[in-house]
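Researcher: Here's my situation. A collaborator sent me these components and asked whether they could plausibly form a single complex. I don't have experimental data yet, so a predicted model of the whole assembly would be a useful starting point for our discussion.
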Amino acid sequence: MGYPSDRKYTKQHEWIQASGTTASVGITDHAQESLGDIVFVELPKIGADLAAGKTFGTVESVKAVSDLYAPASGTVTETNGELATSPEKVNKDPHGSWMMKITLKNPAELDALLSSADYEKFVAEEGGH
Amino acid sequence: MSSIETTPVPAVRKTALNAVHRQMGAKMVDFNGWDMPVEYPSSIGAGIVNEHLAVRTGVGIFDVSHMGDIRLVGPQALAAVQHISMNDASRLAIGQAQYSALLYPQGTFVDDVIVHRLGEDEYLLVINAGTREKDFNWVRDNTRQFDCSVENLSDDFTQIAIQGPKGVNVLQKLTDADLNAVKFYWVTRGSVCGLKNILIARTGYTAEDGFEIYVPADEATSARVWNEILSAGKEFGIVPCGLGSRNTLRLEGKLPLYGHEISDTINVWEAGLDRFCKMEKHNFVGRAALEKTKAEGVTRTLVGLEMAERGIARDGYKVLNGDGREIGYVTSGSPAPFLKKNIALAYVPPEFAGMGTALKVEIRGQGVGAQVVPTPFYKRPKKT
């Protein structure tokens, strides 16, 4: 699976797709692959204020618990309720399964994140799959 | 205790099938110093959930060569086994096996074992990977007074587990032994994949029917047998399985894991393994202490928990009472792929062990509702 170039990536394996000051956030194909069968996604409350780099939720596979880190600062406007009942969607379509939408506090923060090409390189160097 | 003859432990150990696992794309992890597959890729129909379901409904194959094997042979082999294990090995017919444990004098666990009686005066103890050296040294040191030899055969075998209701169909294609004549927890010998006189045990760690075979540990033979089993199992939907599903399978069946439900600080009564501990047999290591602790009663007991609220209990999480006070801890916790529930085993004081007791598990600082439920969580259907 390739990494879409319409969004930015973090070294903690989240993606963020922005349009103006609103953005969707999810985890990458590499992240879902490393985790294995995802069985639980815990997301923040609507209205929660997130700081870039801080945890905003948890994703669990059968075997592992993994924190989710906010790629950028902002306020949560929506969470993907479908993932509460069908967390396996993240395995099947990681780049289509957004977890939350936020209103960006400072869209310029995204400039510091990785492009799809850089992320792909980062994953390869990390010894990923 | 003597510390001589202790073999140094290499940094990372590999089974003879290591290259095969890597070739198949398995995700590898360090398990007690062993480089082992945790799961195989979803692209070949595997992954923990699929592997787990394959064993419950069809068949799966595991490399369990990291398990250790100790053989005791000689005129006093039975007396030696009786002395070092808590179950009653005198009840074993030749070809029969039993679940048992090796205990410290204080009644806590050196390890749990499967004792196989292979001959008139020949016993095979199958022990855990993480405790191989400790167990062998302990067995050797505690059987010196008996007229029998103690051999560490751990590196001699590639041990492959073929588990699940269809396991018998798969293995029968590859052996001349009549597997239908082998009952659960019995062993036989036969040719397997053209190899003569292979030990075939109807045992496992999945709470399912299945077999464990012991083949020569050279890489070529091991790989050939592994691949022949996969080919023979194709028509039954066989799936290669790693330690991830091995753990969820054994947890559903409440089979103890060393370092979790049993350890050198947990005794037999706490672990609820009373029925495998034969106090009526003559003296064995740990018996005196167990007699005393039995009279005193336990302060904690192993219970099954099912999450009543959304959340997954994990190993080491705190267990709280209804008021949020810490009363115990989770020994093993996971989603249960077949039961589709979030389950856990936990040590709690006996007053909180009643069926239906509402407890909480602390997950990321929050008390999440759970309930004491009967165990095992999963029991395989009886054959009709």
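Model: Some features of this prediction you could bring to your collaborator: The radius of gyration of chain B is 21 Å. Chain B touches chain A at residues 27, 38-39, 42, 47-49, 244, 248, 310-312, 314, 334-335, 337, 364 (CB under 8 Å).
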